[in-house]
Amino acid sequence: MLRNYQHNIKQSLFTEWHLHRSVMVQMPTGTGKTHLLASVIYDWLKETEHKSVWIVAHRRELVEQIEDTVARYGIKPNDGIVKVMSIQWLSRHWEDVGDESPSLIVIDEAHHALAETYKELWLRYPKAKKLGMTATPCRLNRTGFTDLFETLITSDGIADFIKQGWLSPFDYVSIRPNSEDQRLINGLEKRGADGDFQVKELDKVLNRRPTIERLYESVRQYADGKKGIVYAVSISHARNITAYYNEKGLNAVAIDSKTPAKLRKQMVEDFRQGKIQVLVNVDVFSEGFDCPDVEFVQMARPTLSLAKYLQQVGRGLRKTEGKETCMLIDNVGLYRLFGLPTAYRDWQAMFEGRLAGKGYPAANARNVSYMAAGQDKGEALDTNGLLETIVSHGQLMDYLQGNSPLLGNPVSQTEVLKPYKDRQSGLWGLKQGQTITAKAQYCTVFDVKGNLASVLFNDNRTGIVDGNGNIRMKLERYRNMKFFPDDIVAVPDNAGHTFYIDLKTSKLYNVKPEVLKFGKIEMLKVGMLYYSRTKHVYKSPLGINSFDLVPRGFYLRIYNLTEKRKFRNIDSEDVFFHRNCVCILADDEDEYYGFCGELADGSIVIADEKGNYYHAVDGKEKQYIACEHAKTQDEDFDVAVSRLKAEAEARAAKMRENHQREKEKKQQMRLAKIQNAVPFQSGLKWGLKSGSQVIVPPVYRSIQKPVGNYCAVEANPRQWGIIMLDGKVVIEPRYTHVEINSNGTARLTVFPGITKTVNLKKF
User: Fold this and answer.
1) Would you tell me how many other CB atoms lie within 10 Å of the CB of residue 95?
2) Cβ atoms < 10 Å from Cβ of 524
3) I need a surface site. Which of 181, 378, 556, 679 has the fewest CB within 10 A?
4) Per-residue pLDDT, 402
5) What is the pTM of this model?
């Protein structure tokens, strides 16, 4: 039996199929996508004209799960009518399916459908109806799905399903923003081909004994005796975690892509039966894994992917009898990138490619190890325990039922963060409205702005905390800290000198910076120098001025004659011109780049300091294209640039065509509004007017009556031309005589006896 929300989605789906051939359906993990899929197929097959249904998944485990589910509806998979298969098998066996022509193709976990192997389905079977099922219709690189799916159907959000009792409430704990692990993660710089953190760097930074020990301590403290799943960085990381957990008495096994299928199946069954307490895996059970009695999920793998985050936490939100709540243990600070699982997501914008399914570190997230005068570089900040509670399941349910605010949420616009003083202790705390968000623990609260407060700690050191009391920065003993606009903090020292800290970069300045804004890009002017507000700070040399900063919409180009980076240019003739240019990208908080040149469509090619080249397009994530020491032909700079140039020229031509078409459309709309235009005289000059409205000012020596949308005009004696009724010059006034015909042509007299006829519509 389907639940009410499943019935509603099913009804919407069949309605959309009357209008569209391919539809994507979004439902949170654990809300019964596979059951809905089976029910849709069952109803589809009741129509006698419908033959052959294919269900395609991207992993063998998902295929087996789908087969079991559809069998409950009396559908026999792989009976010749309904086939369940992995995309990997299908891509190797196109010849085996032969002339089969499915009437319906269902794509499970359809956020993977942008892969080339899936696109083949659309090419081979254009007439088949398509249904894509996913919890997360989003991609890291802001690529939309509209090339494959025509429309998106969305369900209620996770918060609604928890409130209605269909998903499990949860407790959420996370590493502290000033913790050792968070500092390690904040220092991650490399990105993989998909735009996520690079696995090799993740493994190097996090696959260490001290970090794994902290993982175990987190499980022991918050999920002792419970059954759960751990998401690791790599195969080696998973095996090291498993070994340590077993050493400490936890019955854990590691599962990864190299685990033999038979053994993997046995491990999963043992886990379901409770013979295994902990499954440590590497992206194997982030999707499709159905085990409702999972009691905790431990996130030990940092990611920038919203899809991976929600797929992981979703493994723990399935309901089952006797399960009161699920413990979500966030050992990598994903909460600070994505918020709680219950946060609102604009799935339609992500589906269309207007919004990336990506986590963006807050400007202050990496400021936990601020350095200032008098503070040693290696000094560690106080942690006050490994983890902090973001929300308990009780607080969550109170919030969902409208009984109380959620303390883990950012400060709302209506309830401003304010300091308060505890009369008994004499200490200061923070509150939002009537809710205390940080207990009284500070000697003084100097200043408050947004969700930040500058405070004096009880050890007489100054610093900045967020609204919940989490330390964002800790300095030495100073008299005051005051927030300035644009994320600048002023700190006067005991000698009376004031220095300034940029909250976005953690950089200290002895002079108050002037913030220069170029759209979304900001620069700081400090004295006669310019600085970028990126993690890797660009510092200008002396001698450049504001004219050397050239805004170009989504990027800022800076001419720098002393830039020492070595990078190539896309055009040899521009080498000298662009050799010394760097650029700052909008929405890129990490790096500044060498500028290699602009393509025909306005996109650019840039280079980082490691010799990697990227293609940057307005509104999209930069894409890696080449490197200095290419291992493959595709990574060769000349090959990549040649391809990009051809693609850019094609796009530019299409843009020009669209611009011209739009221009003509607007002109036709203007002409359509002009009624009964007649010439009028003002002084010695003539113009055109419609009623009392002047549509062409009196600038001509003479104007004849309009013929259709055209008028003959005389600019100087015996110099005639043709204009449109809106004043646009079609034929320059240089002919002794013109005659406009009603068929859209005109006869032009060059001089007596010499004439030519032109088609006015071509101008």
Assistant:
1) 6
2) 24
3) 378
4) 73
5) 0.54
The C-alpha atoms of residue 331 and residue 387 are separated, in whole angstroms, by 8
| Residues 400 and 159 sit within 8 Å (Cβ to Cβ) | yes
C-alpha to C-alpha distance for 279 and 268, rounded to whole angstroms: 8
Nearest-10 crossing angle of helices 60-71, 33-46? 60
pLDDT, residue 711, reads 93
**Does position 377 have pLDDT exceeding 50, yes or no?**
no
Q: What is the CATH number of domain 160-344?
A: 3.40.50.300
- Residue 250's pLDDT is 93
Q: Please check whether residue 55 is in contact with residue 70, taking contact to mean a CB–CB distance below 8 angstroms.
A: yes
In angstroms, rounded to a whole number, what is the distance separating the alpha carbons of residues 172 and 63?
32
CA 654 to mean position of chain CA atoms: 26
Indicate the pLDDT class of residue 414, thresholds 50, 70 and 90. Answer: very low
The domain spans of the chain are: 4-156, 160-344, 410-505, 560-647, 678-762
Q: Using 50, 70 and 90 to split pLDDT, how confident is the model at 315?
A: confident
Backbone φ and ψ for 536, nearest 5 degrees, come out as -90, 100
Per DSSP bridges, beta strands 604-607 and 593-598 are antiparallel
Total Cβ atoms within 10 A of residue 665: 10
pLDDT in tens, 23-65: 999 999 889 888 888 888 888 887 756 678 888 887 766 676 7
Parallel, antiparallel, or unpaired for β 555-559 and 581-585? antiparallel
Give the pLDDT confidence score for residue 385 in this predicted structure: 52
Fold equal for 4-156 and 160-344: yes
Residue type for position 462: T
Instruction: Please state, as a whole number, how many other Cβ atoms lie within 10 Å of the Cβ of residue 494.
Output: 10
- pLDDT band (50, 70, 90) for residue 408: very low
Mean pLDDT taken over the chain: 85
pLDDT value of residue 60 = 67
Assigned architecture for domain 4-156: 3-Layer(aba) Sandwich (3.40)
Query: Looking at per-residue confidence, does 438 or 49 come out higher?
Result: 438
C-alpha atoms less than 13 angstroms from C-alpha of 433 in its C-beta half-sphere? 10
- The CB-based long-range contact list for 42-51 (8 Å cut-off, 24+ gap) reads 42/73, 42/74, 42/75, 43/10, 43/14, 44/103, 44/104, 45/75, 45/81, 45/82, 50/103, 50/104, 51/81, 51/102, 51/103
% residues pLDDT > 90 (the chain): 43
CA 656 to chain centroid, in Å, comes to 29
CA angle, 461 as apex, 458 and 463 as ends, to 5°? 105
| Three-state DSSP string of 523-578 | EEEECCEEEECCCCCCECCCCCCHHHEEECCCEEEEECCCCCCCCCCCCHHHHHHH
Dihedral sign from CA coordinates of 498, 499, 503, 504: positive
Rg for the chain (alpha carbons), in Å?
33
The residue count of the chain comes to 763
CA dist 445 to 306, 422, 437, 449, 460, Å? 36, 12, 14, 11, 12
